[in-house]
Design a protein that fits this description.
Low-confidence stretches: 1-23, 26-35
Strand order of the largest sheet: 2-1-5-4-3
Strand content: 15-25%
Number of helices: 3
Oligomer: single chain
Mean pLDDT: 75
Length: about 150
């Protein structure tokens, strides 16, 4: 598989997903998204989380799942999923489906790679999931590398 940022057939590049980002959720001195967001890719018209200081995704079931588990969280319909993100978060960003991959360091959640889809529920393809797995693995290597 090609490097994730060059994957033209991935979940964002096919125009059906609204964005993806990766960041460190545990920086207590700043908002979860503000200042710690490492990369973001958005389709035209998608709202950015980069400057939003009003929502804290750590409060939701989605974050708890990622903190407590090592696997991906795939939500074809985030509104009805057992680990649904907060309604306000879904509405603010127009997100209805998402895939999230935890980045762990020493057993702790140190980052998340996420991909969102806005218009409605979406059945994520095997290729979408494989692209996320690849991106999470790459991000984990980058995060673990000495500065």
């Amino acid at each position: 598989m090609p490097d994730w940022k060059e994957n033209r057939d991935g979940p964002i590049a096919d125009g059906r997903a609204s964005g993806g980002h990766g960041g460190n959720p545990d920086d207590a001195t700043r908002s979860w998204a503000r200042g710690r967001l490492r990369r973001q890719s958005l389709v035209e018209g998608a709202r950015s989380v980069r400057d939003d200081r009003t929502l804290d995704p750590r409060a939701g079931a989605t974050f708890r799942f990622l903190a407590e588990n090592d696997g991906l969280l795939i939500q074809d319909d985030a509104a009805t999923h057992e680990y649904a993100p907060p309604r306000e978060l879904r509405e603010r960003y127009g997100m209805r489906a998402q895939m999230l991959g935890p980045i762990k360091g020493d057993g702790q959640l140190i980052g998340i790679v996420s991909v969102h889809h806005g218009p409605g529920p979406r059945k994520w393809r095997d290729a979408d999931i494989a692209a996320l797995e690849h991106a999470v693995a790459q991000a984990a290597v980058i995060v673990a590398a000495p500065a």
